[in-house]
């Protein structure tokens, strides 16, 4: 029977291999007949969902370029289109554009596109539809014109910061959170231990939200040519239905998609075609791919954990693996063509040791004469800031969640919960602190003292390194640390970052660091470099070798593991069918992103 199952699994695996080979052939055929860029073009973009920062090249889908359009793709697509005479205008449907920092990166790209003299139009069924559409409208306000359907509304209702507190729920379940933190603003554990905002968490959350709110008001006022007082008054009146939104000068008209497209085609002239930004970028090519100097681009996305970077094909989440990112830095340093490094960080933090592994390679790159310019996305907090702080320059968006220079650690004690379920654990331990991380027993007084001592050591190390990296006295750094999060705008005022902006600003600073002119051509190359398709196939499918041993269970496990990888590979190639994609590790440098509803 076992041999039958092994044979069946091997047969299914062979079919998977044949399917993948067929996909490869079709993709190669499609690549050979890739169409060109129309001579009269309107760029189109659909922002119904937030854009991913980066898709790891660890899947068959990634090898074939099937990963979703990234934030950088859009930024560089609009940059390329701005200087392409074939491109006449841009039209974007806006739905859920993402975090404040993502919206600001997109706003910057749209404003740069408009600065070339080309028109940009935004539309939506409605901004919010009885919900909060503030973030979507904030993005739309950067365009020349904004339209909604006659049935739509503008839910420019402001920002809401929400934090769940589960202390009472844990108590009812019989779960006791045993945590400690440094320092008073390190609020990650408060959701486990408190029932509402305490004074420090409330202060920090109100300050963070207030800063974001002011940024939104200012952006909308500038984009719609209104005063900030007028915008605040409109926010307090919203949501506004169609004609009321037109009368308030928040939108330029009530139109359907087809009417907007027809108008843009008339403006562009005879033969105008629409092309999505990602397809345009594929055909026209990326900017920054010429010149003798190479700028390495390294991504640090997701929770920081030890080991390799990885992604979950079902959740879409990513892990910033300390080994992978450190290795990318070493490769970039060893490459003689690389003159500087752009380090894109988008992380809430994670493992202290993994963060330090990456920080050390940032330091070594600078010592090797390769300037490191950090560009921060949605957040660079706690361990995310730890990996970034040694860069030559740090660039953040005004809305980037920044800082959280602090540490926490602890455990959940679940013995009472199990007892309620009729499960009792009996423990035999060898070593006084063998139960240190056990979920069955509370910390002893000696273990609690050990935990507190470790946190003191880590916090002093974090703040000391940050002070040295940022060139400020330890006391000044610690005054803005304490585990507190800041917006990028507020972090700039406190010396935690050097400039506001996104990819273009970071690239400008990288050129400046290696004494190149602002307009000098350079090649931006992602490290680690994408692997050849054959290598990805080999790793995903594995090489089936005859197993002559008698260990049928081991053979079955091997075949099953390989089959699972094959299925996942095919699954991701077929992402359009609706299937998508981190592990967890005890973490000490971590800051959860406050939930902002806008």
Protein architecture, described:
By secondary structure, the protein is α/β, with parallel strands linked by helices. It is 44% helix and 19% strand. It is built from 22 helices and 25 strands. The strands form 7 sheets. Strands 11, 15, 17, 18, 19, 21, 22 and 23 form an 8-stranded mixed sheet that branches. It has a 6-stranded parallel sheet with strand order 9-4-3-2-1-10, with helices on both faces. Strands 12-14-13 form a 3-stranded mixed sheet. Helix 5 (134-140) links the parallel strand 3 (119-124) and strand 4. The longest helix has 31 residues, at 2-32. The chain starts with a helix and ends with a strand. Residues 23-32 and 543-587 have low confidence and may be disordered.
Low-confidence stretches: 23-32, 543-587
Radius of gyration: 26 Å
In terms of structural class, how would the helical and strand content be classed? Answer: alpha/beta
Helical run tally: 22
Average pLDDT, to the nearest integer?
86
Shape, please? globular
Relative helix content: 40-55%
* Strand coverage percent: 15-25%
- The number of distinct β-strands equals 25
- Give the N-terminus to C-terminus distance in angstroms: 58 Å
Oligomeric description of these chains: single chain
Main beta-sheet annotation: 8 strands, mixed
In short:
This protein is an alpha/beta fold and 598 residues long. It is 44% helix and 19% strand.
């Amino acid at each position: 029977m076992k041999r039958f199952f092994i044979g069946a699994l091997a047969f299914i695996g062979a079919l998977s291999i044949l399917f993948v080979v067929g996909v490869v052939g079709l993709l190669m055929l499609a690549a050979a007949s890739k169409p060109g860029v129309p001579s009269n073009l309107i760029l189109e973009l659909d922002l119904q969902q937030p854009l991913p920062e980066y898709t790891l090249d660890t899947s068959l889908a990634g090898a074939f370029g099937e990963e979703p359009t990234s934030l950088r793709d859009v930024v560089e697509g609009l940059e390329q289109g701005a200087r392409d005479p074939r491109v006449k205008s841009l039209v974007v449907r806006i739905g859920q554009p993402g975090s404040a920092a993502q919206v600001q990166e997109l706003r910057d790209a749209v404003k740069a596109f408009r600065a070339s003299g080309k028109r940009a139009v935004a539309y939506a069924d409605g901004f919010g539809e009885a919900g909060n559409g503030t973030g979507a409208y904030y993005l739309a306000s950067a365009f020349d014109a904004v339209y909604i359907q006659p049935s739509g509304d503008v839910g420019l209702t402001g920002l809401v910061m929400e934090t769940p507190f589960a202390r009472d729920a844990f108590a009812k379940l019989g779960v006791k959170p045993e945590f400690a933190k440094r320092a008073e603003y390190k609020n990650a554990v408060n959701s486990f231990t408190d029932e509402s905002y305490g004074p420090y968490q409330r202060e920090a959350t109100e300050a963070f939200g207030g800063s974001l709110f002011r940024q939104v008001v200012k952006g909308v006022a500038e984009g719609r040519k209104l005063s900030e007082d007028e915008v605040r008054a409109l926010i307090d009146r919203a949501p506004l239905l169609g004609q009321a939104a037109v009368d308030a000068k928040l939108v330029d008209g009530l139109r359907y998609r087809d009417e907007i497209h027809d108008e843009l085609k008339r403006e562009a002239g005879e033969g105008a075609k629409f092309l999505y930004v990602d397809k345009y970028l594929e055909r026209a090519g990326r900017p920054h791919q010429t010149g003798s100097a190479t700028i390495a681009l390294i991504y640090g996305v997701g929770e920081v954990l030890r080991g390799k970077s990885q992604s979950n094909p079902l959740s879409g989440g990513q892990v910033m693996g300390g080994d992978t990112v450190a290795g990318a830095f070493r490769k970039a340093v060893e490459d003689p063509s690389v003159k500087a490094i752009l380090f894109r960080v988008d992380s809430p933090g994670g493992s202290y040791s993994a963060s330090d592994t990456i920080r050390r390679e940032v330091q070594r790159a600078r010592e090797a004469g390769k300037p490191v310019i950090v560009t921060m996305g949605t957040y660079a907090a706690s361990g995310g800031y730890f990996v970034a702080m040694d860069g030559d320059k740090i660039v953040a968006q005004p809305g980037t969640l920044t800082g959280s220079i602090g540490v926490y650690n602890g455990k959940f004690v679940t013995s009472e919960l199990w007892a309620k379920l009729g499960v009792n654990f009996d423990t035999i331990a060898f070593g006084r602190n063998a139960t240190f991380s056990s979920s069955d027993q509370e910390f002893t007084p000696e273990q609690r003292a050990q935990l507190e001592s470790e946190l003191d050591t880590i916090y002093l190390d974090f703040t000391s390194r940050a002070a040295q990296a940022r060139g400020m006295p330890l006391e000044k750094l610690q005054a803005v640390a304490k585990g507190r999060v800041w917006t990028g705008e507020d972090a700039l005022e406190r010396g935690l970052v050097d400039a506001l902006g996104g990819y273009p600003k970071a690239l400008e600073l990288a050129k400046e660091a290696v004494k190149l002119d602002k307009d000098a051509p350079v090649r931006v190359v992602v490290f680690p470099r994408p692997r050849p398709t054959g290598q990805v196939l080999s790793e995903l499918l594995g090489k089936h070798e005859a197993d002559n041993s008698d260990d049928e269970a081991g053979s079955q496990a091997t075949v099953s593991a390989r089959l699972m990888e094959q299925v996942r590979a095919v699954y991701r190639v077929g992402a359009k069918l609706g299937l998508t994609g981190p592990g967890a590790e005890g973490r000490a440098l971590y800051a959860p992103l406050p939930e902002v509803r806008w």
